[in-house]
Specification:
The protein is α/β, with parallel strands linked by helices. The chain has helices at 11-22, 42-46, 55-61, 71-81, 100-106, 141-149, 162-190, 194-215, 219-224, 232-242, 245-262; strands at 4-7, 31-34, 50-51, 64-67, 90-93, 113-117, 127-133, 152-156. Bound molecules: NADP nicotinamide-adenine-dinucleotide phosphate (NAP).
Length: 264
Amino acid sequence: MNKIGIIGVGNLGRSLAEGLVNYGKLLAGDIALFRRSTSKLEQMKTKGFRISSSLEELVHESEMIFIAVLPQQVNEVLDLIKPFLSSDKLIISLVTGLKISDIRSRLDGHDLIARAMPNTAIAIGESMTCLSFNDTSATRSEEIKSLFNHLGKSIVIKEDQMTSATALCACGTAFFLRAIRAAMQGGTEIDFHSEEALLMAAQTAKGAAMLLLENGTHPEEEIDKVTSPKGCTIAGLNNMEHSGFSSAFIKGITTSAEMAKELY
Ligand SMILES: NC(=O)c1ccc[n+]([C@@H]2O[C@H](COP(=O)([O-])OP(=O)(O)OC[C@H]3O[C@@H](n4cnc5c(N)ncnc54)[C@H](OP(=O)(O)O)[C@@H]3O)[C@@H](O)[C@H]2O)c1
């Protein structure tokens, strides 16, 4: 396995680093990390990760370089790493809205570039990761897919679908968590302490998702199994729809997709 470097160790960069070690069968010592506030990397250092003292050091020590900084921070990073890049360094950008062609031109034609859009569940090996390649990085697609398949599931999409993937899968984590919180609040109102309600709501959500993934069924097919005529489930479900449940979810996803286009 190639040595890996991660530039930007915030929410996503840290989750990726932890996922690679806990689920990707990599050693922490084979992963170099860099962020400007090095004091915030002490905890990662104690876990055995290598902490690079500069971007130059990280680039020299890594064959596969993940970029996990915010869209408004990425140009500076690209400008700083450009002098140290050789053509064999694989850049994998996790940055929302930044196209492979934008990175290529900022890096004066460096061509070995892929994009990945994971979510924070990568830390526990349960990410949904969408991948896009250019012609050059496509030669490494199997290796990159295999890496992400250890950290959840991955799918290769056209690059122009990346902003939509961001809304559905990366922002989607927050959408489903809010749905679970709402279920928890409902559970508390009808009888349970919040900790009990949270466990009950989260495990129910996990079970519902697993039914689809394991059975390969459509959600409505599984819903039919829960809704008996004149029953309490259909009454609750219809009431949610009268209050705009599906519509709110769809509007949230389309709004995020529109915004994701504008972030870089
Ligand atoms: N969070 C998610 O769920 C998620 C999912 C998919 C994609 N993404 C994308 O992933 C990227 C990172 O998101 P995030 O949520 O992890 O952001 P974040 O928590 O704000 O982390 C950004 C990191 O970048 C570092 N950084 C900024 N400028 C830098 C520089 N010049 N050199 C080195 N490091 C630098 C910051 O540390 P210092 O300030 O200490 O340098 C920080 O560690 C974004 O583009 C986001 O769109 C995020």
